[in-house]
Structure to design on (299 residues):
């Protein structure tokens, strides 16, 4: 068997091509680097939204409550104590039946916690009129 | 070469271009393809972190030096002697001749460490003796001398294993 000269033997060896390594995990690495930043960004956004909500919500609520107070009902002056006659007058003055009933409801609610009056006194006053 | 900032694309290109030979070189030192791969990955990932090849004159020789250091550091830590794996395939052989591949691996295994490293760097790494000497920290004449011995020993070993001498006409 012939012994190959160095250059031919080198060429023979070079025919054996080294196998490549596994894929370098660059994508995973990028994702690993990116994930904490992404989470931190979302966490800070969420925190900012919560802080803003907690700061603004009471003010918005106060404003809304002020707006929600029934203007029609407050404008209607409900006579105290309420009699049939005054109720007729109230219905005549009220812009609508609903507004009058709302005003009555609020008024009765207010008076229920207010000064106590004798029912007989009120009825006698009504009958005099 | 001017100092430049390496980005991941450049690192990937270097990895694709030199990865196979770097892995072979690492395996020829470590004897274990898994360890060799870890060492190669370590070098490239570190390169990505530092993102700078600095004032590197010869990137290819630099990569081989880094891989060699990584393998040797790992060896120092693990205190293991070199023992080549039998199962893993290192080469894509011509004509899918895996018997020849195994014989080549065994012949490489039979070489002394210093000769094997010089041989891998010169034949498959295509480094000059000057570059080889730089990587191994030896004189270029020593590198050339080791190479001649390595080639002779490898040829002899292959002839003995195959009961014939390597024939390029196969």
């Amino acid at each position: 068997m012939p012994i190959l000269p160095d250059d031919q033997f080198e060429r023979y060896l070079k025919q054996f091509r080294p196998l490549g390594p596994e894929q370098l995990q660059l994508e995973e690495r990028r994702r690993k680097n990116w994930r904490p930043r992404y989470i931190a960004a979302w966490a800070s956004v969420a925190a900012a939204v919560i802080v803003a909500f907690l700061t603004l919500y009471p003010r918005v609520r106060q404003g809304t409550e002020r707006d929600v107070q029934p203007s029609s009902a407050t404008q209607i002056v409900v006579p105290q104590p309420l009699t049939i006659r005054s109720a007729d007058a109230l219905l005549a003055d009220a812009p609508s039946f609903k507004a009058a009933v709302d005003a009555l409801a609020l008024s009765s609610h207010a008076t229920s916690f207010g000064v106590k009056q004798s029912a007989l006194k009120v009825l006698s006053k009504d009958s005099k009129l | 070469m001017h100092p430049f900032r390496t980005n991941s694309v450049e690192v990937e290109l270097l990895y694709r271009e030199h990865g196979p030979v770097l892995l072979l070189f690492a395996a020829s030192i470590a004897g274990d393809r898994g360890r060799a791969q870890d060492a190669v990955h370590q070098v490239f990932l570190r390169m990505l972190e530092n993102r700078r090849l600095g004032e590197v004159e010869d990137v290819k020789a630099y990569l081989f030096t880094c891989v060699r250091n990584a393998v040797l550091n790992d060896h120092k830590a693990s205190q293991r002697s070199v023992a080549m794996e039998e199962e893993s395939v290192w080469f894509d052989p011509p004509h899918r001749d895996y018997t020849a591949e195994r014989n080549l691996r065994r012949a490489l295994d039979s070489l002394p460490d210093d000769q094997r490293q010089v041989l891998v760097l010169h034949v498959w790494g295509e480094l000059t003796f000057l570059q080889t000497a730089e990587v191994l920290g030896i004189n270029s004449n020593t590198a050339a001398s080791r190479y001649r011995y390595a080639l002779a020993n490898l040829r002899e070993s292959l002839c003995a294993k195959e009961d014939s001498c390597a024939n390029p006409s196969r």
Notes: Residues 17 and 101 of chain A are 97 Å apart (CA to CA).
